[in-house]
UniProtKB/TrEMBL annotation, chain A:
The gene is pyrB. It catalyses: carbamoyl phosphate + L-aspartate = N-carbamoyl-L-aspartate + phosphate + H(+). Heterooligomer of catalytic and regulatory chains. This is Aspartate carbamoyltransferase. Pfam families: OTCace, OTCace_N. Residues 5-144 form the Aspartate/ornithine carbamoyltransferase carbamoyl-P binding domain. SUPFAM superfamilies: Aspartate/ornithine carbamoyltransferase. PANTHER family: ASPARTATE CARBAMOYLTRANSFERASE, ORNITHINE CARBAMOYLTRANSFERASE, MITOCHONDRIAL.
Automatic annotation (TrEMBL), chain B:
This is Aspartate carbamoyltransferase regulatory chain. Contains catalytic and regulatory chains. Residues 8-99 form the Aspartate carbamoyltransferase regulatory subunit N-terminal domain. GO terms for biological process: pyrimidine nucleotide biosynthetic process.
Length: 307, 156
């Protein structure tokens, strides 16, 4: 892959994805392989909303490549607080860094930012839009555990506002997968994601109850039902318990079922699942570093410079 | 009765734009597109459900002293692809525009996604890609169906 920016999982082909995952696997196999490869390079971390895993894994990835990071800090301590536009902030920061990572609460923010910068820009989450690097590490984890072809994936929780879901659904269309979406009616996939799935010819089914499909699944990708999204608390309370799983629930699943979650979780996966062979979410989080190392290496390398 | 006679039901204009062959019922949407609500003092003639050989019934809009911009024509192409646009100067049609469905519509529609970056105070205009029967925000990906387009018009 040689692209200037990574904004959406919809821009990734199967070959792009495999190139990143293959490079990540090489890094995993020999963590020192890329030591010092990008010595002197600077990555700008621009997080306009809270983040733990994404921010720290990008930070770690860049440092393991020999580079350094600069961090604009919290919105409260930045010029954003003074009313500066995102466009201006990004135009300034591109002069400080060789690449930028942007998280912002508005959908389309990363796309807009690319119109104002020339350095590579990575979308680290734009509102309820996309989160393509999370998807790359999700796919890496899936490939390690069950493969990416001829698999049945269940994605459960807040499908409407879940950016990790939107990215993952798009990326999975590159592979031979069957996608099952499980959510309350009020949190079904948004129209734009449905459109892309339909256009790609993806095999998709929707459910309101996990029981309808659990036994078929190779992967269950759980996301948090976001209480704050419900206009009526009673509506949330009606469905919340329906989308929590514990070890007993998973007895109906295949022994090989892989349970994933982008984290942080609240109560949608009970702690007793952690002790089962199904739990993969912490491994999934750890995979953020080699995958982001691979991606940054490819974005920062000159065209044709293949090590 | 000839077409010309029928068109005379709507008065001739000296300078401006005649938007003809609109599907019946689209005239008010076109006025919304042009941002005409009467407050600007424009002289506007509207024919609704006018008999038409081609469409059985059609709407016509004539706007005095206003020539449509390309961006306005682009949106018109989405909501009324069969329309024709005649630019009139000194009572003569000096230009006939047949409108083609554009690949994108720039700067004239607002995105219905309130959380889209185009609705923030940023130095950008909206841009929608034109799909088969809908439009899509190039920034956030939101889909706007054609029937919703008139409600998203954001023209002065």
């Amino acid at each position: 892959m040689r692209q200037d920016h990574l904004i959406s999982a919809t821009q990734l082909s199967r070959a792009d994805i495999e190139a990143v995952l293959d490079r990540a696997a090489e890094i995993d196999a020999d963590p020192s392989a890329l030591n010092g490869r990008h010595e002197g390079a600077i990555l700008g971390l621009c997080f306009f909303e809270p983040s733990t895993r994404t921010r720290m894994s990008f930070d770690t990835a860049m440092k393991r490549l020999g580079g350094r990071t600069i961090d604009m800090g919290s919105v409260e301590s930045s010029s954003v607080k003074k009313g500066e536009t995102l466009a201006d902030t990004m135009r300034v920061l591109e002069g400080y860094a060789d690449a930028l990572v942007l998280r912002h609460p508005s959908e389309g923010s990363a796309k807009m930012a690319t119109e104002f910068v020339d350095v590579p820009l990575v979308n680290a989450g734009d509102g309820a839009g996309q989160h393509p690097t999370q998807t790359l590490l999700d796919l890496y984890t899936m490939r390690q555990n069950v493969g990416l072809d001829d698999v049945t994936v269940g994605i459960m929780g807040d499908l409407k506002y879940g950016r990790t879901v939107h990215s993952l659904a798009a990326a999975l269309t590159n592979f031979d997968t069957r996608q099952h979406f499980i959510s309350p009616e009020s949190l079904r996939l948004p129209r734009s994601v449905r459109y892309d799935l339909h256009e790609s010819g993806a095999q998709v089914r929707e459910h309101t109850a996990l029981e309808e499909v659990l036994s078929e699944l190779d992967i269950l990708y759980v996301t948090r039902i976001q209480r704050e999204r419900f206009p009526d608390e009673n509506e949330y309370l009606k469905v919340a318990g329906e989308y929590q799983i514990d070890a007993e629930d998973l007895e109906a699943a295949k022994d090989s079922l892989t349970v994933m979650h982008p984290l942080p979780r609240v109560d949608e996966i009970a702690p007793d699942v952690d002790q089962t062979e199904h739990a993969t979410y912490f491994e999934q989080a750890h995979n953020g570093v080699p995958v982001r190392m691979a991606l940054l290496d490819m974005l920062l390398s000159e065209e044709g410079d293949d090590r | 009765m000839s077409d010309t006679d029928r068109e005379l039901r709507v008065s001739k204009i000296r300078n401006g734009t005649v938007i003809d062959h609109l599907a019946a019922g689209q005239a008010l949407n076109v006025l919304a597109l042009l941002g005409i609500d009467g407050s600007g003092g424009e002289s506007v003639s509207i024919g609704m459900n006018v008999p038409s050989d081609k469409l059985a019934k059609k709407d016509i809009v004539k706007v005095e002293d206003r020539e449509l911009s390309q961006s306005e024509v682009d949106v018109l192409a989405v909501i009324a692809p069969e329309a024709t646009i005649n630019i009139v100067r000194e009572y003569e049609v000096v230009e006939k525009k047949r409108i083609d469905r554009p690949e994108s519509v720039d700067g004239v529609l607002s995105c219905p996604n309130r959380n889209c970056i185009t609705n923030a105070d940023e130095p950008i205009h909206t841009r929608f890609s034109v799909l088969e029967d809908a439009l899509r925000c190039d920034y956030c990906g939101e889909i706007v169906r054609e029937e919703e387009v008139p409600t998203r018009l954001d023209v002065a």
